[in-house]
Amino acid sequence: LKCNHCITCPAQRLLLLEGGPGSPSCLLGGKHSVSWGFEDMLPTPDNSTGGAESKDTDLGRCLATDGLYLYTTNSSGRGLSKLGSGLHGTLRGFVYCRNEELEPGWVVFSSSRLLHRPSSFDAKPHQLCQVVDPFTLQVCQIVPMPAHHFPVGSSMTTLHLCSDGTYLYWVWSPASLNEKTQKGHSVFMDVFHLSTQTGLCVADILQERVILTRKEGESSKCLNELLLSRMSRFRASHSATLAALTGSAITNTVKEEQSAVNTSCGLPLKTLRKTPMYVCGTYLVMLVSPPGVSGSSATRSLFGGTSSLSSLKILASSLVFNLADGQFSSRADLIDAPGSSLGRGAQVAGLGTCYDALNNLIWTCSSDYIDQWCNPGNQAFHHVCHRLGVSHVIKEPKEETVATGEVINQLLHHVGAMCIHQLNLLAASSNSLPLEALLGKQHPIEARHFGSICDIMEKAMVNGDTCIIRCILVVFQVVFRFFNPQSEQDRESVRRSGLLLWQLLMAPVDQIGTEIQREVCLAISSGLNTLYQGELELNKLLKLVLTEGERNSGLSQLRDVILTNLAEQLQKNRFGSEDDDHYRLNDELLHYVLKTVVRESCLVITKCQTVARDDFQKLLSTVPVVSPCLRYLMAVQNHLLSNTILIRPDESDDSDSSLQGETMKVQELQSSILSLATKILVGCDEVLETLQQVTTALINSDISDRETRLKGLEQVTKATMLGHLLPVLLTSLMHPTLQTLTLADALMPQLVQLVLYTSQVSMASLLEIFYYV
Fold it and tell me: Comparing C-alpha atoms, which of 641, 540, 536, 545 is closest to residue 593?
């Protein structure tokens, strides 16, 4: 294959596309997922002391995430609190641990490390940041600034510290906040790569320093300003009324521009200090208040979030800068997000925000609410390449000819990147659009093309080419969603792909690696109904992964992925039709799931007695976390109880057949609840027996931290099925719909045994209290 020296070869040009065009990352109203209230349990900043100087140097809230937990400071950047995000089994809003003494600064999560840069490091140019233990939130190491990389100038001011999950981005300016003349100062961005050398974290320069540049007048006027300018030809009262309705303030923007001294990125230095920023790996995004809207006036409209006029209000603007050269790229306005914290009246300045590389999400945090947003842009190219197991550095060919195998690899890398973007799109759209609507836009794949994919996978497995294997596994995850086998040739291709996937799944993990094993599980789970036609085959697979999962890491991971997906489907279709019943496993499979949950609960309770002191503190900082098996049982229980308690008869149809149908449906649900409740109560008895044994053993022991372990045992117990299943079940059984003689007669023996075990555990705890008194 000939390559022109002036024009890059087609394969090279495809790689430069980074998987296809995409929108820049920003906050959009249509991408807002959920908002929930929280309390960080950190001291409230005292604004009465410090005066104006302290107010100017306040940092605002800082937010970081590892994909499971959220790490937030208080509203002035002081302290650190670890909260559950509600993803991957964590308990949403629960404070796992906190450090009230951490000095003001910025916190990020980069390269599997929790990092913190205190504002005092601006006076210590030889220090970059410090490593924080994610379990105790205590500082454990100071990371030095790379050699010969000290900032120029006599003073410097850190404006923000960001991370895309892989690299560290330091935004700063060689100026002081107290300088009178700040015009003309540049805003620099340094990018670092973290590594471990001799057991210590070390930072290295990744790319040359860039200046964040935004020319005057590059951003367009906000929608409110346009509306107000159109109303100016009419009476002034109309403009004032519109400003009040939309939550805007009529300000003299010309006077503001003259009084504000801007930096190279178009914002004053003191404003940048509190400007929320995040980095997705391709862009740096600054969240600013729209022009002409003061922070105090950015409140909800008089008619609330449902008013058509309130939807015209711009809540915030995303200023997007390219990471490669620091140039301003675009601006996007956040308009329609009435349920977000900004829509509820939170100010943009001082907001905490970060990018979640694990889930491809954006998080924002005000003083009262945490918001979850889908990232509208494509994942950064180095994130995509990391998942595919290839280098993100695109090298120019040194010779005029390129080997055919290299061209094929580059084409596969491009296809793999496209499929990852497609998977992210499907995940982001699953909350707003049904999968059928998305599938209808796709062209069905032909059998010969599917067979070609299997040919490539088979050859890669023979040659041991892990990069191509990972690319094809990602392709399978997309293809299985669109492929519907009709002919015998189609079914033969499906059987062939299933054999290839199963061969990879059963291979030793040290031979294929954990990344390939994870992608295999995702591929099988996405094609579950395609690979296993019929209920009999599917139940056979589920029985295998549930019974043999503890003895095989691949089967264990496949079990977790399948149960997580089934739980999500049950949660989305809680009040769905009878078609959703196939997400509920039969009694035999539920029994295997329950056995795993009981074993997990007993194991975590036993750890309170057996693990070392440091490991026990780590355990307390990571519970409660719901396992996939427990999460599925919770979803099944909530599905049954919700449909039973909230069932409503059809008032428009009062015929005998309709009433008889409703009665039969209630009886069927009650029968399912009885079967599940019996299993859960029996399992709780076993867990309570273990709890009693551990409590008694701790009381009779002479370990130095006995009191701490007994107090922590309560928190650990709430993380088991005793805390997640039992309270909901017992409360729901008090509903009139479930107060039947059949249920009472069947559950009475288990309830009596449950009372006996809880009484014994409570008595042991009381004896311990009397002992200390």
Answer: 545
CA 509/CA 516 separation, integer angstroms: 9
Tokens representing 490 are 């189609």
For residue 479, give both structure tokens: 């293809």
Helix/strand/coil percent split, the chain, to 5? 50, 15, 35
Contacts of 174 (CB under 8 A, 6+ apart): 151, 152, 153, 155, 156, 185, 186, 188
56: three-class secondary structure by DSSP: helix
Please name which of 119, 267, 104, 268 lies closest in space to residue 179, comparing C-alpha atoms. Answer: 268
Residue with tokens 């409503």: 648
User: What is the C-alpha separation between 351 and 35, in angstroms, rounded?
Assistant: 14
Q: Which CATH architecture does the domain made up of 23-374 adopt?
A: 6 Propeller (2.120)
Kindly report, residue by residue over 129-147, the tens digit of the pLDDT: 999 999 999 999 999 999 8
The token pair that represents 532 in the structure block:
């296993």
Domain definitions of the chain by residue range = 23-374, 567-773
**CB neighbourhood size of 695 (10 A):** 25
Closest CA to 434 of 337, 638, 573: 573
Residue-wise pLDDT tens digits, 472-529: 999 999 999 888 888 888 889 999 999 999 999 999 999 999 999 999 999 999 999 8
Is residue 26 classed as helix, strand or coil in its secondary structure?
coil
CA dist., res. 543 & res. 316, Å (int) = 51
- Do β-strands 113-118 and 210-211 pair in parallel, antiparallel, or remain unpaired? unpaired
Amino acid at position 771, single letter: Y
Condensed to tens digits (0 to 9), the pLDDT of residues 153-185 reads 668 899 999 999 999 999 999 888 877 665 678
- Per-residue pLDDT for 693 more than 50? yes
Residue 657 banded pLDDT, cuts 50, 70, 90: low
pLDDT, tens digit, for every residue of 713-743? Answer: 989 999 999 999 999 999 999 998 898 898 9
Helix (H) or strand (E) holding 535: helix 535-548
Q: What is the pTM of this model?
A: 0.89
* Edge-to-edge strand list for the sheet holding 316-322: 277-279, 283-288, 316-322, 328-334
Report the C-alpha gap between 453 and 439 in whole angstroms.
20
Q: Which range in 103-107, 299-303, 443-447 is most confidently predicted, on average pLDDT? A: 103-107
Where helices occur in 33-185 by DSSP H, the ranges are 51-57
Q: Taken in order 423, 424, 428, 429, is the CA torsion positive or negative?
A: negative
Report which DSSP code applies to 220.
P
Question: Phi and psi (nearest 5°) for 27?
Answer: -95, 125
CB–CB of 89/631 below 8 Å?
Answer: yes
Q: How far is 570 from 632, CA to CA, in rounded Å?
A: 9
Helix axes 488-505, 447-463, angle to 10 degrees: 20
Q: Which is nearest to 59 in space by CA: 349, 295, 294, 317?
A: 349
